[in-house]
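Annex B, item 7. Sequence and structure tokens for protein A, then protein B.
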Amino acid sequence: MRVLAIPAAARFGRTMLLAASGFLAASGAAALAAPYCIQSQSLPPQCNYYDPAQCSVDAGRQGGVCSANPQQTALQQGIGQYCVVTAGGASNCSYVDRPSCMAEAERQHGACTEAPAIAPAKAPDPYSAINGD
């Protein structure tokens, strides 16, 4: 039986490649985060999804929800508490509850996420002097 020796230069190159890839993975994880995340009460957000439909499927399996990564996706403000974000990055923040948002997100193969500036819980009083209280 003959044993092949790997030249020292090749071993060094492979070691450096592995070290560099490990460094990039550790230091650039936030910079390379995907636009969709699985969120749950027990785990930190897992932002490694580029397809919101796949994110929603996996979130359902894990007992969480799929949402847009706020560091990667700019949401347009709207009148609702929740936004539907499509695979192209378009958002519609006009949903007052999560179930209606999730139903529309499923229909559009998108994700439902909380609105960036959540609207007040009560409707403004049109007869109030300051129109709100």
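Protein B:
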Amino acid sequence: MSFLCRIARRTLVYVTSMCLAFASLANQSFCQGPAPSQIDVETVYLFNFAKFVRWPAERDGEQLNICIAAQKAYSDSASRVVAGEQIGTRRLAVKLVSRPEDVSGCAILFVGLAAKDHLNDLLNAAAQHATLTVSDIPGFLEQRGMISLFVVNNRVRFSVNLENVDRSGLSLSSELLKVAVQVQGKSPGVGAR
């Protein structure tokens, strides 16, 4: 088998496994136990998003903080999801935030409906750092958000605003963009790694 064929095969296997991983989340088909709640599915998405983001070099090696500005059920679920997990050499941690000044040190910021009144202030704070912003608040992408979670036919899906991602100095893997329902801004492949 030629070198190019081996590379193509590995790439196909990788992309297929990524699509299957996100499809299983979207279908909420976990192997054991009762069906997960929407909160559980959304926090698993946060963990998986972290695998497909490239932060600026100065963030390398730091602990990867997933910050939650939402009801406590989100931070409890996220803590269970990331317990003992690492992405590369970065240990994951969950931090509950309520004020814009708490956003410093966040790699990912999830803003839930409970924090809707503080959305603008939280996004302004996140813009000062290389922070991926995610929310399930309707219209989030139009308010400078990066990834919007929403439910269609009882399944959690997501859309991406690449212009907002690019402004932050982050880049998203093209594998992540391939499984998004919609990518606003530049076409997939531009601004993606």
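Comment on protein B: The radius of gyration is 16 Å.
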